[in-house]
Amino acid sequence: MTTERRDAPPTAEGWYVLHDVRTIDWAAWDEASQRTRDRAIEEGIEFLQSVTAVEDADGGGSMVVSMLGHKGDLMIVHMRPTLAGLDELERRFERTALATFTDQIRSFVSVTEASGYSERGREFIEGDLDDDSGLARYMRSRLYPEIPEKEHVCFYPMDKRRDLEYNWYDLPFEERAEHMDAHGDIGREYAGRVTQMITGAIGMDDWEWGVTLYADDMVDVKDLLYEMRFDPSSSKFAEFGPFWIGRRFDPADLDALLAGEPLSTPWEGVSEHAEHDHPPATPEDAAEGHGHDESGHPEGSGDGDHPHGDTDEGDNERDDHPSASSGRPPTTDSWSEAIADIDEMDARLGKAGLYEGEDYTGRTYALVFETDRDAAELAGEVEGLASNFDHYDTHVTTAVRASGGHTYLASLWTTEDAAQTASGFLTDLDGIDTGARGWAGSGGADDASTSAPTGTDEDDDIRSQLAEQNIYAGQPHGEDVYALVVYSEADLDRLRPVVEDLRASFAGDDHVKTAVYDDPDGEIAAVVSLWEDRAAAQRASDDLESVPGVVRKAGEGDGFGTMGMFYTVKPAYREEFVETFGTVGEKLEAMEGHRETALLVNDDDANDMFIASQWDSRDDAMAFFRSEDFRETVQWGREILDDTPRHVFLA
């Protein structure tokens, strides 16, 4: 028998959690007067709606569950930053008229936990990870989880065995980490179907950990736990307590619960469930959330990378997104502006050396990054990520290719959500920042979920060509931007009040901005109005023509007019930006087909500028955008700009 003390994995803790399980005294309820019942329902709804809305400034979450079976009728789950917060909520409920009809038959007090069985998990706990890295965001999402929009809830407590034959705490650290890693392989197979929250309860409750599982189909929970029972981390080293299961419901349906009527979920009627059920957070996220840890998990559970115990999955561990692992602060639940949405993805993939029929088939959502890194070196780093991605049914392929003297990283998925999650991991790699995304393969262009521009075919063609040059063309935030521009010879004093009135009348979700831009070297100013919706922009066009002193609109006359290239410059670089524009302007004057180019400045913000150019033809303008001079200018601009440039083209 060894007397050697085993190493305990470091842990990080987040929110405290209370699972409050109640039975309802149905006999007392039936005997109560209608007035008493109405008061109980009113106070109960008021309390439950208040806590599920999470009015606490420091965050947290609450949910209400209708329990199935004899173990309880109602379960309220609270997550709050402090035990004092849980204490207050528990006492507040006891003071409601509803509480007089309930008995608290079971409770479980614990705290969300992440443990350091993996090397990356330990780096997070010890503060050695970049706060913006995918893994750091993922770990935070486990410590400060959001409650996913899944209908069913399963909760159970568990321990790690400590008997003579199988004592988890007597195993060497490395052996425990291996168990956790292997256990995570099972959980990853349920990514997207089962989401898990692991909480530590040592010193707080009779059991060591609590496991809360969320799923739309309880059979997925059954299958997951059944499979895990055969894994040594469960079969040899785990002890499980009683299971409580139920269905989440909207607090407003409390009267329906007490009347035995159908219940609705909290998100019903608010929006499409599928849209809120964020894709498995990162390849990893999803995986993990899913059950993974369930197994004996807990100890490991907290592992941020937990499902995988210590695996290098940590690298991918991500931010991702949501889905299952949704979390707070937000993980990758929106596209980075550095990843341009393009239409001609098949051509881009071909440029990177991947072709339909060989590397992918049918409708596929692709990410392509071009980098200066050595292809062999990058491939070595990507290998682990690709292996983890393979755990997901939505993954097609992730590969590094050297083509035409350039290095490309491509990642292909069957859904846009999965690709979005993967992007968080990929952009964590050194040298992987700007890139392109879009649908490829047969049927891709027809998919309703794509975010392809809705402008004219000619506009789309321009955007796709510019995207090939990594130039943002009208989609600064993943959506189209439609521009209206009129040029006026009126004094700024006359234009300002008119534009202020326009801004007030344009206020709405579709309106981006309307402003006066002055040409310091000319006598004509521009009034620019940007919109997210083409129809809204068209409706605003008549109002814009009311501007005094209008001499022309953008796009009028012969030739090809480009309006856009909006830049918000960091104040310290404004002078340098203007000087650089002067240099570029000199080169433009010497280019074939160039007519004129001016730099205009926002009358309200001297750091907000746009460049208006006029060319003989579109081909002449595109020749400039493909030039090395422009490429160098764009690259330089990324270092000094405060925001992504908005390039909007009017032909």
UniProtKB/TrEMBL annotation:
GO terms for molecular function: heme binding; metal ion binding; oxidoreductase activity. Residues 561-649 form the ABM domain. InterPro entries: ABM_dom (IPR007138), ChdC/CLD (IPR010644), Dimeric_a/b-barrel (IPR011008). Residues 264-334, 437-460 are annotated as: Disordered. Residues 270-279, 287-297 have a biased composition (Basic and acidic residues). Keywords: Heme, Iron, Metal-binding. It comes from the Archaea. Signal peptide: none annotated. Residues 323-334 have a biased composition (Polar residues). The keyword ATP-binding does not apply. The keyword Metal-binding applies. NCBIfam families: PRK09565.1 (NF007124), PRK12276.1 (NF008913). This is Heme-binding protein. It comes from Halapricum hydrolyticum.
